[in-house]
C-alpha cells in the first residue's frame, strides 16, 4: 500500500509538471540586442525589426549596472525626444527580466541622454497571445514555430526532464 501511495504521489507531480511545461511553451524570451545586449553600440532598431512580442513573453535587458540603466517612459514623444524627466520606472541592476503581461506599447530607453540620443531606445508593441481553436471551440495558446536564435528557451522544459529523472530514480529506490 505504501508503494502505491508513493507511486501515485510521483505521478501527480509529473502530471502537474507536464501541465506547467505546456503552459510555458508559448512564451518567448527576448534578449534585447541579442548577443551584444543593451549597449550603445547595439542597433536595437535592427534587432527588434520584424520581431513579434506577445502577452506572456518576457524581455531581458543585460547591461552594465555601473555604466547604464533602463528607463521605461510613458509615451512615444518622450522616447523620440529622449525626454527622461518623467520616467514610469527606472531599472538599474544590470540583468532585467520584464513580463509582457498586457497588450499595448511600452517604451524603453537608456538612462543616459547621450546613449538615448544615439539610438539606444526600444518601443515594444505587445500583441495578444496567439491562439488556435480546436474542434470543440476551446481556445488553446500555442507557439508558432521556432523562436529566433537570440531568444532563450523557457526553463520549464529542463525542470520537467529533471522531475522525470528524479521520479524514475525514486521509483527504482522504493519499488
UniProtKB/TrEMBL annotation:
Pfam families: Cu_bind_like. Keywords: Disulfide bond, Glycoprotein, Membrane, Signal, Transmembrane, Transmembrane helix. The chain crosses the membrane at residues 157-174. It comes from the Eukaryota. Residues 28-128 form the Phytocyanin domain. GO terms for cellular component: plasma membrane. Gene3D superfamilies: Cupredoxins - blue copper proteins. Residues 1-26 form the signal peptide. InterPro entries: Cupredoxin (IPR008972), Phytocyanin-like (IPR039391), Phytocyanin_dom (IPR003245). GO terms for molecular function: electron transfer activity. This is Phytocyanin domain-containing protein. The lineage of its organism: Eukaryota, Viridiplantae, Streptophyta, Embryophyta, Tracheophyta.
